[in-house]
Design goal:
Layout lengths: L1 H15 L3 H20 L2 H8 L4 H7 L2 H26 L4 H18 L1 H9 L8 H22 L10 H19 L4 H4 L3 H17 L1
Length: 208
């Protein structure tokens, strides 16, 4: 069929230009978003990318390898979403932490499948160096921002991990409840109003 031939030719061109790795990750994200972790398959990814069934396995190994690489993508996007909000916020420590919490929520709403993958799935291999690094960077950023507000670094003062956990739980809880459709009153608000409510909630927790 002409359409399939054109798709295969495009895929072959991407392969020759070294872009197949990125094309497979893009297809994997679409597969995950549509079919979820349980329905995710290398065959489905290959079909979306317009390549042979063997291509995903050649680049990533088994399904877990591809999900691991996709989780790394997720964490890096997660960090970027937080930084995007932080750039627009006031420079003081409290405002930066509140902005990061807002970015946390926005990441979840914009990338629900990746959000579930990196925070709810056991499939990714966190011993994989790239994923271990990106996940560690995300947590280290949380610890650092919390320390800037409380004056205690959880890596140096174990009791300060309670503050980190509280901040994390609030941001993650709001994000998870919104993605699950459990906070209808908040999710139904116009974005600007919703964002301000989330800022107020996180700021209220920081002041306690």
């Amino acid at each position: 069929m002409p359409a399939e031939s054109g798709k295969s030719a495009a895929a072959t061109d991407r392969y020759h230009h070294g872009d197949l790795h990125a094309a497979l990750l893009e297809a994997a994200e679409a597969e995950l978003a549509e079919r979820g972790i349980e329905g995710f398959s290398l065959r489905g990814v290959a079909k979306r990318a317009g390549v042979s069934h063997a291509a995903p396995a050649h680049h990533f190994g088994e399904v877990a390898g591809l999900l691991t690489a996709l989780a790394d993508v997720g964490f890096r996007r997660f960090i970027d979403c937080q930084k995007q909000e932080m750039v627009q916020a006031a420079p003081d420590a409290a405002s930066q932490l509140v902005a990061a919490g807002l970015g946390y929520m926005n990441f979840a709403l914009d990338n629900p499948a990746l959000f579930r993958l990196i925070f709810s799935s056991q499939r990714p291999d966190y011993e994989y160096p790239a994923l271990r690094q990106s996940a560690s960077e995300a947590f280290t950023m949380l610890v650092g921002m919390t320390a800037a507000v409380t004056g205690k670094d959880a890596f140096e003062h174990p009791d300060a991990m309670r503050d980190v956990t509280a901040v994390w739980a609030i941001a993650h809880g709001i994000a998870d409840l919104l993605v699950s459709g459990r906070l209808g009153w908040l999710g139904g608000l116009p974005q600007q109003e919703r964002d301000q409510v989330v800022r107020d909630i996180i700021a209220r927790m920081i002041r306690k």
